[in-house]
Amino acid sequence: MSPEFLATPIIEEAMTSDSEVPATPAPEEAQDPTQIEKSAPKQEFVGHEDYVWAFVFLHDNIHIVSGSWDGTMRKWNCDTGLLVGQPWTGKGGCIHALALSPDGKTVACGRMDGSVQRWNTDSGKMIEDVWTGHSREVRSLSWSPNGDHIASGSRDGTILIRKLDSGQTEMGPIKTGQRWVNVLVYSPSGDKIASGGLNETICIWDTKTGELVIGPIEELGASVTSLLWSSESKKVYAASDKFVRVFNSNSGIELHRFEHNDLVNSIALSPKHNVLACVGQPGVAQLWDTESYEPLLRQPFIDRQTLRCISFSRDGRYLASSGLDKKLALWVVKDMVPELT
Description:
Blueprint: H1 3-6, E1 43-46, E2 52-57, E3 63-68, E4 72-77, E5 88-89, E6 95-100, E7 106-111, E8 116-120, E9 138-143, E10 149-154, E11 158-163, E12 169-175, E13 181-186, E14 192-197, E15 202-206, E16 212-217, E17 226-229, E18 235-240, E19 243-248, E20 254-259, E21 264-269, E22 275-280, E23 284-289, E24 301-302, E25 307-312, E26 318-323, E27 327-332, H2 333-336
Antiparallel strand pairs: 1-27, 2-3, 3-4, 4-5, 6-7, 7-8, 9-10, 10-11, 11-12, 13-14, 14-15, 15-16, 17-18, 18-19, 19-20, 21-22, 22-23, 23-24, 25-26, 26-27
């Protein structure tokens, strides 16, 4: 996507909705003819008025919280297909990033105005202390594994690491030189943060010193749109251009690359299986075996709109995607790949 496309005006007004809005079942006639019947989504959550740029599965494996360019967040029930309560409204404009705390009680939200807000996942209420410090929109957020710190990456090219209890900046601003920090993520070990930039680079930083320890890893063909660490912190998965590249996190050496149909926007690793999911343009998603490197779907499942975000539920049962069609689609993993059960 071009920088002009990614930059959008601040949306000042938040929408309202009834307390319960049913999800829209996926019409069979809307499916791509190459799709197999078993890959039809379980639910489609409709209600946002603009792009759904981020979402998180809550720890109960039942609820999803989504964030949109319409400036609202919404909590959905995966079992009933209903919106839970009212949309969560707040100031600051478009929502570009969400991150769930390790204990599952708080969602951090990154806004167009450069602020970071925190919301209670049970009540849907915003915690009063709003953090500022970035001069442009917050494009990425990540909690430390112990939940004590939150890292934010911005279009201003910097990373801030804040202490949760005080909101004070403990590290930064780290001037990354990546133009925009599109994505960043803590390693499971907590001692490193990987960041991906608009300038087609990946950097790995020491969380205690703010020093660059690996990179910049260059020549990735396009802006880095998504990053993941392997569970043991030894590998980094990165989405850019039409590839998902796998790097050794200690050396920066490329180990493998998965080839997608087109530009890759988001990737996810299953917490229960050796499965990598990726989505992008033009609305194509594929699942890969991370050990054999083989695709798990004979035909990728296809949406008619560009997909921006994908994630597995914590129990590995569900896979959800969202994008430019203003909705979330929820898939049952066993329906797509029965052998994983």
